[in-house]
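Thread title: Can someone regenerate the structure for this chain?

I was given the following input by a collaborator and told the matching structure tokens would be attached. They weren't. Posting the sequence so someone can regenerate them.
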Amino acid sequence: MRQMGDGLTKKQKKALEELSRGIVNKLLHGPMTALRCDGTDPDAVADTLENMAALERMFQLAELKQLPNFSQRASRHPPCLPSLA
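Best answer:
Regenerated them for you:
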């Protein structure tokens, strides 16, 4: 939004933020649902772990783990499933 300059009113900025949030939520709903599982169905757990491994490869998350302070940031949001590392 910074690139759009100060030409937007507060109402326009709010509408743009809500639209952006809605688009992101819509795009992420399916993948996030696929990643969630309660651990009771072994097939669902296997699928979830497979999806997590694919995401780790796609977004090079293994490299992220090597960054300083990663473990401190990650501990604030613990995963529901064991690490793939």
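The helical segments are 10-35, 42-58, 61-64, 70-76.
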